[in-house]
């Protein structure tokens, strides 16, 4: 075997091992919506520069699931930790929360206190029914750090004012879906956020979004992008892209049926500092 062939074989082996060996961690994310006179805005947090995943990107609040924790509970806990927004309801002792204060409660949870126990001590329990399933994204198998993330949609409770934690997150923004797409490069939006903003932009009100979420709840087929080499560089293919099964590389979550949401642009390309969400060549369903 020549030195070049040996290097190629080694490279191929490393590539294969990366595809099959990266563990996948469960996670959950909240797409938080706020009403405005016309339509709604979406809340984003900017991850810190040194974050191990999506550093410096504006993303939806969320994080990894703790042992024994259900996805909705993860979403509610992470929203509280990262944004200070509490999705909770009275469990019999509301005066305890009034004495303690929301900020103090958040500091306890951020300091390592068990979130469920802390809420119960404050006379509260998670209002998990306010979180509606939206999508399920799995990090491409080429990536060294991977998550299986459930996305939920929820409305900002009255009186709540989000605030970043200045630890994992260092900035925040309220944006309309169309503005977010236009500012994708400035906000350093990852593909799942861009795609979600495209989907939200198809709806004119929170009520429409919630109606769509109730339909989507029965169609939560995982979305795992696959890499492909395009003319302009690396391309990410989504499961409804016509080239997903033939040209895509790595693990796949191919569609066995056509979910109602699997429409419109089906791939991403990198242009400068931004991901661009585009339709496949020749597609008649660009949205």
In terms of topology, how is this protein built?
Layout: H1 3-21, E1 24-35, E2 40-47, E3 58-59, E4 62-64, H2 71-83, E5 88-90, H3 94-100, H4 102-110, H5 115-121, E6 124-126, E7 132-138, E8 146-155, E9 169-175, H6 177-182, H7 184-187, H8 191-200, H9 206-216, E10 226-230, E11 233-237, H10 244-247, E12 267-271, E13 274-278
Parallel strand pairs: 1-8
Antiparallel strand pairs: 1-2, 1-4, 2-3, 2-9, 5-6, 7-8, 10-11, 11-12, 12-13
What can you tell me about this protein's structure?
The structure is a single chain. The chain has 287 residues and is α+β, with helices and mostly antiparallel strands. It has a domain at 23-87 and 127-221: Nucleoside Triphosphate Pyrophosphohydrolase, CATH 3.90.79. It contains 10 helices and 13 strands. It has helices spanning 3-21, 71-83, 94-100, 102-110, 115-121, 177-182, 184-187, 191-200, 206-216, 244-247; strands at residues 24-35, 40-47, 58-59, 62-64, 88-90, 124-126, 132-138, 146-155, 169-175, 226-230, 233-237, 267-271, 274-278. The strands form 3 sheets. Strands 1, 2, 3, 4, 7, 8 and 9 form a 7-stranded mixed beta sheet that branches. A 4-stranded antiparallel beta sheet has the order 10-11-12-13. The chain has a two-stranded antiparallel ribbon with strand order 5-6. Strand 12 and strand 13 form a beta hairpin. The longest helix has 19 residues, at 3-21. It is globular, with a radius of gyration of 20 Å. The relative contact order is 0.15. Mean pLDDT is 86; it is low at 1-19.
